[in-house]
Specification:
The chain contains 45 helices and eight strands. With about 900 residues, it is mainly α. The chain has a five-stranded parallel beta sheet with strand order 2-3-4-1-5, sandwiched between helices. It is globular.
Length: about 900
């Protein structure tokens, strides 16, 4: 990459094809591919990503700048930002550097302030940012360019990994440069990766002509070989040649690198100023450099002028900028390591003294702090706290570094260590958190400190699914603790652990004691844990009313637990309240994946299988975005069971493979139960009824089947599997459990109807089948009603009762409307037998195709109509009363089924189909 120079003949006009201009020699092919991407996005082909990769000085930035010019010539709104090495702790700094400073800016200051107000909610923040960009791109294509992405802050990296998929259908081109592939991409467009190779001899010769203004002498060409095809290094050498000639007896050192010789010509004060600047980063403020120089900023004008005249610095107005990072690195490399360390440490102190945030000072501390540096330990801890919500991995790294700086026998090691355990746990680094805690415990801390560390480790062990170890550790900690707050937390952790045990009565007593202790100590964390534990215990015990009571109290106290209240109400068949709760979760839910899971649970209960599957896909994607797949097994089991209802055994087996891998990686009894039941359903469908029955028996080896609340809606199917496997005792045991569950929940129609249905199958009692149907018709769940109606219809058909047709018709229609095609087909076969006796015939269901407009589900058609009519994802979500995340999932499915990539193409297809009916929520 060459420095800025007057451009002569051969310059191409931005936006037009032609010869490359000076600074772009040898990059014609890459430039044409970038031009084609710009034109494709402009022409409505959907979003795209381009990635320019290569070593420093290879020409990435100049290609990026040329693409920016081409995009502007094509009418794009441009965001051109740059990541900086020492700004990795500033959330969203890398993206914000461009979003706020375009002409016009892509985002207003008000928009960005709104985002900053929710910096602790990564998913919401990125979704909102995507909405703003989507709205801006509705009438104008957008280019978002980020230079040096290898230094992007973690929140910007997260946004760059999520937003291209979110904005796939919008005319947004992402252009990133980096030294290595940052592997940011999730489910977005496949990136166009352009690795920049060294320039050819021909390109270097053209570059030489540009700089020297004529033919390149043989001796100069030989010297250019030393640049290794790097255009920036070649340009530096040519600059030296232009200044002093190539025929000098001993060519100056700048013919090889050029930089040190240029520095040697500077005044000592200017050289010192540049060295200070190199410590502060590629871009730095004059005020910060002046503070480190110990001089007023006004007294450095001569140094600044000389550095600019030497083509080392560029004045951006607000900041000074090394013209290339290679120049900064050359200056920085001339500093002795001890001097660098001292300057970084002094920079940190002066930034703090000037009132700057810990995130400004900490990058310097990471390069300079030594063991025992208490100021550094404190600042690292503060910075970890500041970024923990939005950049948990970085927070964990900072907390661990703070701990490393504490001398082993210093009293503060336990406080700093406790914060490291908490930070590592929040980042999902559970094994490291446990190991850190065990190292601290091995130092035999005082008893109260021992209890406090065990309390912190309780959260770690819960996430590791090691409830036995949690119980084992908390018992001696409770015996040692004197702090009432820590006692309340430890007791609440024990209650949570015991919620997964056999003695739920004892667990309930522990939870009630924990809640009383939490209220006495007035500790928020303990109270949340106690209420959560009591709610879990009640759900596991099958006491749905108590679960609603505790989870309602919890969500009132902490709205992050609203999804738990919704799920508890779904178990009570209180679908109306659950729906209202989910709709009032607010614009910025704290746990969006769990909220979508609750919505999926509701849609499954309502028999909306397509919508439930979309919700489950969305919940899994959100968990994957955050790298916390804690609910993956439950999501995939439910998706697999939905696939079985539809008759898609291939998809069910794909889900089963994912479940097997997840359970092998993180085994626990709950995952074992749901996994084994899913295996039983697949084995039963394959005709291996004995193996299926054995798998159902394995579910009960640790706990009764009804103990697993995810499996309660499937208990009737489990009874059928037991009967087909020849195990009547198992069927009767399962039926008895449903009766006991119904006794605990007298006001829940599904519980009552399932008990009658299971008992009817186990005892071949037609009267109980009729009772089951009557009860389930008063409830909100159509699929259990369809199952009971189908069994009743078959029983009546066998008895020759003409009422069989009515029962079978009801079952068939419910299954067909829900999209449970496999079940509908089975009932239709029975219905044809019944109607053939009366002379009537039934029609058959046409399977939904895999591709094309007819492949879309009802909800996907609603979304497609709205998007085709010009709605954004956000406004479509508002019209349908669903989450924007769910709309994103529907759009991805729509585009896949229609084989399109943009909203323009979707609108054309919708218009051609004539499908313009209004789309609203229901």
């Amino acid at each position: 990459m060459t420095p800025e120079r007057p451009e002569g003949a051969g310059m191409a006009v931005p936006g037009s094809a032609g010869l490359s201009r000076p600074g772009l020699r040898g990059r014609e092919a890459e430039l044409e591919r970038l031009r084609a991407l710009v034109e494709a996005v402009r022409d409505g082909e959907g979003g795209a990503i381009a990635l320019l990769l290569g070593e420093p000085g290879i020409g990435k930035t100049v290609l990026l700048q040329e693409t920016v010019s081409i995009a502007r010539a094509h009418g794009f709104v441009v965001s051109h930002g740059r990541a900086e090495e020492l700004h990795e702790l500033a959330p969203l700094a890398s993206l914000a550097s461009g979003l706020l400073h375009g002409d016009p800016p892509l985002l207003s200051g008000t928009d960005f302030a709104d985002l900053a107000g929710h910096h602790d909610q990564r998913i919401w923040l990125v979704e909102r940012l995507a909405q703003l960009i989507e709205e801006r791109s509705a009438g104008t294509p957008v280019l978002i360019a980020v230079d040096d992405v290898q230094w992007a802050d973690p929140l910007s990296r997260f946004a760059l990994s999520v937003m291209p998929a979110r904005l796939l259908s919008s005319p947004v081109l992402w252009l990133l440069t980096g030294r290595n592939d940052p592997e940011l991409y999730g489910q977005g467009p496949r990136p166009t990766t352009l690795p920049l190779r060294p320039l050819s001899d021909t390109a270097l010769t053209e570059l030489g002509r540009d700089v020297l203004g004529g033919d390149v002498p043989t001796k100069v060409a030989e010297l250019l070989d030393g640049a290794g095809g790097n255009p920036f290094l070649a340009a530096e050498m040519l600059t030296g040649i232009a200044a002093s000639g190539a025929d000098a007896p001993e060519p100056p050192e700048r013919l090889v690198l050029g930089v040190r010789d240029r520095l040697a010509d500077l005044r000592p004060d200017t050289l010192h100023f540049l060295r200070i600047g190199s410590v502060l980063g590629r871009a730095f403020s004059l005020a910060d450099a002046a503070a480190l120089c110990g001089r007023p900023a006004s007294g450095l004008s001569a140094e600044v002028d000389e550095a600019i005249a030497a083509a080392l610095l560029h004045d951006e107005g607000e900041r000074l900028l090394f013209r290339h990072d290679l120049l900064r690195q050359a200056v920085y490399a001339d500093l002795a390591p001890s001097v660098r360390r001292a300057l970084h440490r002094e920079a940190a102190s002066r930034l703090v003294a000037a009132g700057r945030s810990s995130t400004d000072a900490v990058p310097h501390l990471l390069k300079s702090a030594e063991p025992g540096d208490q100021e550094a330990i404190g600042l690292l801890g503060t910075a970890a706290t500041d970024v923990s919500a939005v950049m948990p991995d970085l927070a964990a790294d900072l907390a661990v570094r703070a701990l490393e700086l504490v001398p082993p026998h210093a009293p503060m090691v336990f406080d700093v260590g406790e914060r490291a355990i908490v930070a590592l746990t929040r980042a999902g680094r559970y094994t490291q958190a446990r190991d850190t805690g065990d190292t601290l415990l091995a130092r035999q801390p005082p008893l109260d400190v021992f209890a406090r560390l065990q309390s912190a480790l309780g959260d770690t062990l819960w996430h590791l699914d090691d409830v036995h170890e949690l119980t084992r550790r908390s018992t001696p900690a409770l015996a040692a603790v004197t702090d009432p707050t820590i006692r309340a937390r430890l007791t609440a952790r024990q209650a949570l652990a015991r919620s997964r045990g056999r003695d739920l009565g004892a667990a309930r007593e522990t939870g009630e004691r924990a809640l009383a202790e939490a209220e006495r100590s007035d500790d928020r964390e303990a109270r949340v844990l106690a209420l959560w534990g009591l709610g879990e215990i009640a759900l596991n015990a099958g006491d749905c009313a108590a679960a609603v009571e505790h989870h309602t109290a919890l969500s009132v106290f902490d709205t992050a637990f609203l999804p738990e209240e919704a799920v508890a109400r779904i178990h009570m068949d209180d679908f109306d309240t659950a729906r209202r709760l989910l709709r009032t979760a607010g614009d910025a839910p704290l746990r969006p994946a769990m909220l979508i899971w609750a919505q999926g649970t509701l849609n499954m209960g309502l028999g909306r299988l397509d919508d439930a599957d979309a919700d489950l896909v969305t919940a899994e994607r959100l968990e994957a975005d955050l790298h916390v797949p804690g609910n993956l097994v439950n999501i995939r089991v439910n998706r697999g069971l939905l696939a079985m209802l539809r008759g898609d055994r291939e998809a069910a087996r794909e889900h089963l493979d994912v479940v097997r891998a997840a359970v092998a990686e993180r085994p626990n009894t709950g995952n074992h139960a749901t996994h084994q039941y899913f295996e039983a359903v697949v084995a039963d469908a394959d005709g291996d009824h004995a193996a299926a029955a054995e798998l159902v028996r394995s579910v009960q080896r640790d706990h009764p089947f009804l103990r697993w609340r995810l499996l309660r809606p499937h208990v009737v199917q489990a009874v059928r599997i037991a009967l087909r496997g020849g195990d009547r005792n198992l069927a009767e045991d399962l039926a008895a459990q449903t009766v006991e569950h119904a006794t605990r929940n007298p006001g829940v129609p599904t519980a009552q109807g399932a008990a009658a249905h299971a008992s009817a199958l186990a005892n071949a009692d037609h009267g109980l089948l009729e009772r089951s149907v009557r009860i389930l018709r008063t409830g909100p769940r159509p699929l259990p009603l369809a199952a009971a109606s189908a069994d009743l219809g078959r029983a009546l058909l066998t008895a020759g009762d003409p009422a069989a047709t009515l029962a079978l018709t009801r079952a068939h229609d419910i299954y067909a409307q829900a999209g449970a095609d496999a079940e509908a087909d089975r009932v239709r076969a029975d219905l044809e037998r019944a109607t053939s006796r009366s002379g009537r015939r039934t029609g058959s269901l046409m399977p939904r195709p895999a591709q094309g407009w007819d492949a879309l589900t009802a909800s996907e058609r609603k979304v497609a109509r709205l998007i085709a009519a010009g709605h954004t994802n956000r406004s479509a979500a508002e019209a349908l009363v669903v989450s924007p995340h769910t709309v994103n999932t529907h759009l991805a499915s729509i585009f896949r089924k229609l084989s399109v990539r943009s909203r323009v193409h979707l609108a054309r297809i919708a218009l051609a189909e004539g499908d313009t009916a209004p789309a609203t929520g229901g």
